[in-house]
Each structure stands twice: as structure tokens, then as C-alpha cells.
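Renewal narrative, Specific Aim 1. Our central claim is that a sequence can be written position by position from structural information alone. The example that follows is taken directly from our test logs and has not been curated for this report. It begins with the C-alpha cells describing the chain, in the order in which they were read.
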């Protein structure tokens, strides 16, 4: 987090600041924290209630209104939020949930935590989201739900996914952990699934340290989610409520205060990140052989989670890793955007192997996540891109046709 004295009041001032030789470490993410957030947290620290207080409910109401849903339930993380949603729908052992293996945030782990089986479908080459035709191919008699994410901020093809879910009588779960503020056909993400899950940990543009939110329009589902999450102090003597064992999965008023302050500034934060995106776009124009950012025709607005560079086909996974390492040597935090879930040990033990999801593997092997936050300067972005270009030459790939 940047110290308050170093927060730029004028975004243009940040954009013009040069990068010096021997520069400081450039992190992958850096929350946009101002005196407003610090004041909100300070007020809670001076109050007699740090948890189970009124700010969590205020945050829930404000976030539901922002997304345009009737109900919101605050949770510790997107993974826990999805776990509670699956439990609320009665999904567990013997059931299958179709999901994507291409994700930076491993929300899909919640499927395994319920005892259900994750069934991975391949993704669209351009958007990185689940390909509807691949989803339909995976449906069986034990399929209960489709979990689709708005990958790196790019909305999924929700109209097609909704049609598939309706025809097959499936629950449509929306993973919006990477996409706060993006829009599909004019509507904000989080408004398309029967239930949608958000996450407020870094590198989310809205952060409250750790935390998440589940949103829905179904009052019965919202009540069930709350009962699975935790019991209120006033409900401890209730025989009805006491029949369900909760996970004690709430958030503190400290986290809620930070999240609420961030939500009030969300338009400002998004605008600051757009400037950084524009600076990146200017500098990467000279980087030959990379896949340009893609926005699907039905997508109204994309607020990227991280700035992803998709390397050309002459690059290999090992050369991508070497480029990321060269960036780290130069004090720039970079990472592979995704280690596909189906190639991780837990899912490997379920029978998945390399070659099962060819598009997922091709994209994941060549995607590099670069620093993306509001405190980046034009000079820093130029340095990041030039370092990456030099590193690509060092690994011998040169210009590559995507």
C-alpha cells in the first residue's frame, strides 16, 4: 500500500513521473488507498465494535445496489462464497459442476470442497472465457451447475450460457472475482448468474484486504446463504436457525469499512486504472508478435484484473517463465497468469492430463501478468515493456506471429 503522503492527487502527475535507474520494486498490485479509506478504518478502530457490527450490513446493501441485485451476503473470500452457494443449492457428492481450468483466482476449488466433481471445459481462444459449445459437450445426467467466470475482467458470453443452463435445467453460477465494473450488453457483471461471487483481495480494484460478496435476487437463497455463513447473536436461542451448522464465515467491520469506502470511490479507481491501461497500450504497440487485448462484440466495458500480455506461438512455456524471471531480476513483479487447474495435483489425481484442454493450455503457457494498478507511472510502464521486449530476445523467440 502506498503511504498517504505519496498518493497522487492528480493522475496525470503519476503518468508523467519518470522511472529512475535503480528504481524501487514495482509490485504486481498496489491498492488505491486514500485518506478516505484510512479514516473509515480509523473510525471503526475507535468504536466498540470491530466485528458483528452495522458496517457489514451497510456494505452488503451498498454493493447489492451497485451491482443491481436484490441481496448481497459478505464472506471471507470468493472461494468461500462459492462454497456457500453450492451448499445452498444442495450440490455435493455425486454431482458435477462444469467450470474453466483457466483462472488466476482458484475459485473453482470450492467445487471439490463440497464433494462435487469439477468437470473442466475448454475456453474461447480470444476471450479466455468458457466456450459455450464446449460446455454443452460436457453435460451429463449428473451435471447440476455451470460455473463461468469473467476471465481477467472480460465478461463471459452470458446470453449463450443462460440458454444452455435453461435448456438443461442447470444452475448458472457467475464467478466475477476478477471483473468488478465490467459490463456485458450494458449490464454490470454480477447480474447474470442465478448467483454471482466477487472477491476483494488483491489484485482486485476494490479491496478490503480479504473478503468477498455473494449476490442474488432469490430471497430464499439469500436466507440460506446467511444461515450457512454464520448465526447472529440474536439467533443463538432459535431452534429453527440452530438446526443448521454454520461455517462462521463472516467478515469484520474493519474489512467492511474499507470495502465500503472503496465502493464509494469505485468510479474514480476505474478511471485511474484506465489511464494506466492506455499507457500500456501505447508502449506495447512496438512489441511485435503478441496477441492484442480482445473485447467481444457484446461486451460493453472491460475493466482488466491484471495487464496480460499473450506471447506468440514461437514462445514456449519455459521461455515465458524465463521472461517473467528476467522481469523479477529487474525488480518487476510478474507472473504466469494461470497454472491451469486440470494440471494441478488435486485435479491430476482425478484423471486430467495435459492435452485434455488444448486451448486452455496454449493460452496459459504464454500469458504473462504484468503490474497493473493506479500508482504506476509512464516511466515505469515503459521500463516494464522494454525489459520484457529485451527478455523475449534473450530467450531467442524474437517476433512471433500469433
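The sequence written for that structure reads:
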Amino acid at each position: 500500500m502506498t503511504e498517504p503522503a505519496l498518493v497522487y492527487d492528480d493522475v496525470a502527475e503519476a503518468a508523467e513521473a519518470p522511472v529512475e535507474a535503480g528504481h524501487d520494486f514495482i509490485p504486481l498490485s498496489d491498492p488505491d488507498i486514500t485518506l478516505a479509506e484510512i479514516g473509515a478504518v480509523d473510525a471503526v478502530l475507535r468504536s466498540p465494535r470491530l466485528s458483528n457490527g452495522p458496517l457489514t450490513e451497510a456494505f452488503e446493501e451498498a454493493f447489492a445496489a451497485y451491482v443491481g441485485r436484490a441481496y448481497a451476503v459478505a464472506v471471507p473470500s470468493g472461494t468461500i462464497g462459492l462454497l456457500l452457494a453450492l451448499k445452498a443449492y444442495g450440490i455435493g457428492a455425486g454431482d458435477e459442476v462444469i467450470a474453466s481450468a483457466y483462472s488466476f483466482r482458484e475459485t473453482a476449488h470450492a467445487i471439490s470442497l463440497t464433494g462435487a466433481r469439477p468437470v473442466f471445459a475448454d475456453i474461447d481462444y480470444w476471450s479466455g472465457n468458457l466456450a459455450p459449445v464446449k460446455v454443452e459437450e460436457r453435460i451429463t445426467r449428473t451435471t447440476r451447475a455451470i460455473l463461468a467466470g469473467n476471465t481477467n475482467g472480460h465478461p463471459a458470453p452470458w446470453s449463450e450460457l443462460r440458454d444452455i443452463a435453461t435448456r438443461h435445467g442447470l444452475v448458472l453460477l457467475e464467478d466475477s472475482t476478477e471483473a468488478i465494473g465490467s459490463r456485458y450488453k450494458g449490464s454490470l457483471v454480477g447480474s447474470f448468474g442465478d448467483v454471482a461471487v466477487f472477491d476483494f483481495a488483491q489484485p482486485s480494484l476494490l479491496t478490503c484486504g480479504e473478503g468477498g460478496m455473494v449476490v442474488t435476487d432469490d430471497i430464499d437463497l439469500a436466507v440460506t446463504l446467511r444461515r450457512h455463513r454464520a448465526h447472529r447473536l440474536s439467533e443463538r436461542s432459535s431452534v429453527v436457525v440452530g438446526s443448521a451448522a454454520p461455517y462462521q464465515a463472516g467478515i469484520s467491520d474493519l474489512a467492511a469499512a474499507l470495502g465500503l469506502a472503496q465502493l464509494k470511490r469505485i468510479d474514480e479507481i476505474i478511471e485511474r486504472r484506465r489511464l494506466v491501461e492506455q499507457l500500456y497500450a501505447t508502449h506495447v504497440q512496438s512489441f511485435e508478435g503478441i496477441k492484442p487485448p480482445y473485447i467481444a462484440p457484446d461486451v460493453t466495458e472491460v475493466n482488466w484484473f491484471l495487464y496480460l500480455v499473450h506471447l506468440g506461438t514461437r514462445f514456449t512455456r519455459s521461455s515465458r517463465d524465463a521472461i517473467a524471471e528476467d522481469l523479477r531480476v529487474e525488480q518487476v513483479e510478474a507472473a504466469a497468469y494461470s497454472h491451469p487447474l486440470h494440471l494441478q495435483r488435486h485435479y491430476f489425481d482425478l484423471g486430467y492430463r495435459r492435452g485434455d484442454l488444448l486451448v486452455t493450455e496454449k493460452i496459459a503457457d504464454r500469458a504473462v501478468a504484468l503490474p497493473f494498478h493506479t500508482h504506476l507511472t509512464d516511466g515505469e510502464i515503459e521500463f516494464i515493456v522494454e525489459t520484457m521486449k529485451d527478455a523475449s530476445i534473450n530467450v531467442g523467440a524474437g517476433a512471433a506471429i500469433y
